[in-house]
Amino acid sequence: MLQATMTRSHARPIDIFTPSDASADNTNAQNLTVKEIVARLPEDRFHVTMLCDGTPDPRLSARRNTRLVQSMKHGNTIRLLRHCLFPAPDIYFFPRTGPLDRVFLNLRKRMRLNTALITYIVMAMDAATGSGMIGRSIIEGDMVFSNSIHVAETIDQMFGVKAKPIYDGVDRRYYFPRKRQVENADLVVLYAGSLQPRKRVERVIRQAARLRGVQFRVAGKGETEKACRDLAQQSGCHNVSFLGHLSSERLGEEMRQADIFLFPSILEGNPQVLLQASACGLPSIAMALYRSDYVVNGKTGFLVGSDVELSASLDQLAGDATLRRSFAAAAADHACQFDWDDIAEQWSKVFEEVLQKRRPCFHQRAS
């Protein structure tokens, strides 16, 4: 029997399952987070299984210790469940709200599986967002983390669970400042994100109707897209362009060509898109409700408390090129502290720590 004190380098890799998509073109923030973490985990210390609904991220497909389970039209829950039971992984990371998560958590409890549950919460918790599987994953989680201080506070308030913040990072392959500052002939305001009610993209259209000399560009797709297009047409907004879904590469290019990032969403965690905009040297205007740590109010952009403040802040930035340049430089500097290499190392320590707490004799299993 090997001693429990032996080093990790001599023990078998930690086996992690995550219900996340490894596809290269999946730009969902949660999946981006997992892809960036997994791409950096030391292969001699971790083995990861995740699904793949398309062409895989080449960084992940090239990893010898990462298994990608190709998604099919039917039967994915059963196929993925096999990888959660035979054998059960050491860690189930970042549960979501799908049928696989529900079935696995039920079996984990019923079969007393010795699988640690690590929950990562990326949305402020309230009666709506904290219900169902999200709330269950917090209550049953061996360790719970959040993507901001504010989200951690809402978890504590609602569930009495302390969640340590671990921030997301920024992908420097796509999000970086433009090499030299060039003023656009017409000011460009960019929105990027899904088009759904809580994002309030119609507020972007109303700003476009108010500021006819400014170009507004909307990147993303979703259920409110038709209503937003109709509103733009009814308002005679010829200064609005709908770009559709953009790859990370194209979104970075759009951000570097814009002058202001406008994000009127009212329900978030700590939106990655605000960090991406900052990394591109783009001043942001967002709502103060979720207190994003990616925007420093009055230094890299504005966190506003109302739609009246949103309009006033947009007017201020639109009318002051010197302020825009100051905010842009500060935003790019602020984004530098959110480095994926450092953040992935935080997660690797979390994965090892949870097994030390849940399974002190883990190292002995290498015997």
Please tell me about this protein's structure.
With 367 residues, the protein is an alpha/beta fold. The protein folds into two domains: 8-169 and 339-366, Rossmann fold; 188-335, Rossmann fold (3-Layer(aba) Sandwich), CATH 3.40.50. It contains 13 helices and 13 strands. It has helices at residues 29-38, 58-61, 76-85, 99-110, 132-140, 149-159, 202-210, 225-234, 248-257, 272-279, 307-318, 321-335, 340-358; strands spanning 14-21, 46-52, 66-70, 91-93, 116-121, 143-146, 164-165, 188-192, 215-219, 240-244, 260-263, 284-287, 301-304. The strands form two sheets. Strands 3-2-1-4-5-6-7 form a seven-stranded parallel β-sheet, with helices on both faces. Strands 10-9-8-11-12-13 form a six-stranded parallel β-sheet, sandwiched between helices. The N and C termini lie close together (5 Å). The relative contact order is 0.14. Mean pLDDT is 92; it is low at 1-10 and 361-367.
Q: Summed up, what is this model?
A:
This protein has 367 residues and is of the alpha/beta class.
Features:
367 residues; alpha/beta; Rossmann fold; 2 domains; 7-stranded parallel sheet; 6-stranded parallel sheet; 13 helices; 38% helix; elongated; disordered N terminus
